[in-house]
């Protein structure tokens, strides 16, 4: 959708609803501006047949189940009172990282047209053997792209894998995007891995916690006071040069000062990848199927885009050599100079001081996740970082809608959800349908009787005088079909 100025109809708010873990009664009020925005752009007459989904991701996944439930209950209770979108209990849930990765993969491949049938020889085609269809010929279709998505809390990777590749069920998603369940030519087999705690903000927090713990221990062991006063700060290579920061834990304050050493920063965050010595593993020792890098294509979203574009202005085609040079230069620039550049508007419009402060760390983290964690070669040339593709904003939410409404027309979804969310009406519907049937039956029967009576009157008017009606009817029938009892 686009508004009257041809701008995408998109609205975002921060922070996420997980921030209301201790005050769930405020969640509905917080997201009402989003719902009001939707209500204004969806025609009023279409509200009751427009499905509304509230799908929660990593921020909610890390909360205790009791807090998740309280937040969802507030949404399910309050939203139907103020909005008449198609919204049932099954439409509000905390989705898994695997689901989120699948939805992101569907979204980008849909926008790129990789699900469309093609006979164009210029398209990159691939031969696919569909699971469960051993007796059928292989299908030739467009090659799909893989996705990399790094949020604040988690990181995902997803790409299509051949039938011959053995993958554990918890890392594999098989789904059908055809028009119906029997249309197997659009069955996809996708490797999906999600890494909680490997998002940009969560990684920084793990890094800082480690600095605090190790420094306090070293101070006690050696009798030093590093980081305990502003005069003896801990020198952090992952903060821009001369940036000062204070962190607190358990009532203690630690002082950090940036040295802006991008190369050293990469070295010190390496252990946080939790890599193992085993082959074919990625972050946290998780299995990763072989990737044919020369025949692959990937899109990077969220932090992959922000890290390359917001400050470094290098979004789009990714080049490792150029990225490292730009990141090194940024980290080594004095903080007052970076602030001056910010005040002059030299960075992206949505870049803020938080982005400036942690750009050095996040650049190093993104680089290490991509090249060390996921083992992409440094000369890999088929990664594009993006926020919009073909002037369309690509988010996992697009894939979620496509997946959840892929088989049924909206009217069928409406009926299904109506039955699910209004189960106490089922008895009423059953009786109502029977009454309707009998009413229709009697109407049809009455129409037939009225029609026959009218024919009888017309026939009487046409009879010659002195001839009985019954005799005229008999004479009007073929001789072999005259009933003997008339």
UniProtKB/TrEMBL annotation:
- Which keywords describe this protein according to UniProt? ATP-binding, Hydrolase, Membrane, Nucleotide-binding, Transmembrane, Transmembrane helix
Q: Which GO terms describe its molecular function?
A: ATP binding; GDP phosphatase activity; ribonucleoside triphosphate phosphatase activity; UDP phosphatase activity
Family named by the database record = Belongs to the GDA1/CD39 NTPase family.
- What would be one Gene Ontology cellular-component term for the protein? membrane
According to its UniProt entry, the protein's GO biological process terms are: CTP metabolic process; UDP catabolic process
Record: active site: 100 (proton acceptor)
| Name of protein | Ectonucleoside triphosphate diphosphohydrolase 4
Q: Which PANTHER family is this protein grouped with?
A: ADENOSINE/GUANOSINE DIPHOSPHATASE, ECTONUCLEOSIDE TRIPHOSPHATE DIPHOSPHOHYDROLASE 4
Kindly name one Pfam family recorded for this protein: GDA1_CD39
- Chain sites annotated for binding ATP: 152-156
> Is ATP-binding one of the keywords?
yes
Q: Where are the transmembrane segments?
A: 435-453
The lineage's top-level taxon is Eukaryota
């Amino acid at each position: 959708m686009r508004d009257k100025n041809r701008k995408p109809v998109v609205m975002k708010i921060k922070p996420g609803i997980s921030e209301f873990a201790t005050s769930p009664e405020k969640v509905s009020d917080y997201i009402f501006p989003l719902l009001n925005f939707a209500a204004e752009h969806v025609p009023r007459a279409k509200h009751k047949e427009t499905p509304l989904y509230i799908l929660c991701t990593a921020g909610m996944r890390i909360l205790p189940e009791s807090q998740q439930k309280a937040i969802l209950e507030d949404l399910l209770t309050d939203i139907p009172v103020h909005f008449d979108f198609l919204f049932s209990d099954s439409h509000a849930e905390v989705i898994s990282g695997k689901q989120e990765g699948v939805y992101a993969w569907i979204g980008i491949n849909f926008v790129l047209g990789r699900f469309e049938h093609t006979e164009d020889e210029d398209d990159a085609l691939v031969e696919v053997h569909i699971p469960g269809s051993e007796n059928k010929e292989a299908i030739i279709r467009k090659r799909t792209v893989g996705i990399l998505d790094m949020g604040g809390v988690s990181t995902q990777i997803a790409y299509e894998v051949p039938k011959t590749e053995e993958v554990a069920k918890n890392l594999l998603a098989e789904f059908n995007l055809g028009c119906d369940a029997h249309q197997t030519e659009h069955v996809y087999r996708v490797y999906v891995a999600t890494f909680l705690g490997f998002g940009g903000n969560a990684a920084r927090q793990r890094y800082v916690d480690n600095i605090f713990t190790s420094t306090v221990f070293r101070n006690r062991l050696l009798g030093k006071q590093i980081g305990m006063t502003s005069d003896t700060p801990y020198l952090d290579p992952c903060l821009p040069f001369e940036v000062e920061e204070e962190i607190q834990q358990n009532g203690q304050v630690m002082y950090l000062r940036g040295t802006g050493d991008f190369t050293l920063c990469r070295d010190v965050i390496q252990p946080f990848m939790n890599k193992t010595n085993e082959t074919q593993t990625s972050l946290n020792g998780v299995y990763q199927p072989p990737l044919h890098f020369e025949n692959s294509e990937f899109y990077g979203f969220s932090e992959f885009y922000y890290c390359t574009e917001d400050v470094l202005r290098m979004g789009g085609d990714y080049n490792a050599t150029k990225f490292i040079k730009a990141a090194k230069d940024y980290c080594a620039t004095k903080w007052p100079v970076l602030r001056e550049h910010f005040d002059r508007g030299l960075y992206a419009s949505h870049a803020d001081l938080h982005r400036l402060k942690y750009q050095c760390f996040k650049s190093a983290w993104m680089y290490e996740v991509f090249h060390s964690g996921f083992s992409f070669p440094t000369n890999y040339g088929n990664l594009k970082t993006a926020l919009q593709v073909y002037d369309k904003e690509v988010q996992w939410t697009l894939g979620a809608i496509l997946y959840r409404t892929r088989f049924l027309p909206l009217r069928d979804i409406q009926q299904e959800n109506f039955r699910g969310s209004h189960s106490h009406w089922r008895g009423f519907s059953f009786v109502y349908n029977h009454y309707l049937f009998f009413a229709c039956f009697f109407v049809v029967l009455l129409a037939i009787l009225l029609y026959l009576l009218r024919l009888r009157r017309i026939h009487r008017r046409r009879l010659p005088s002195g001839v009985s009606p019954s005799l005229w009817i008999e004479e009007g029938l073929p001789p072999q079909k005259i009933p003997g009892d008339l």
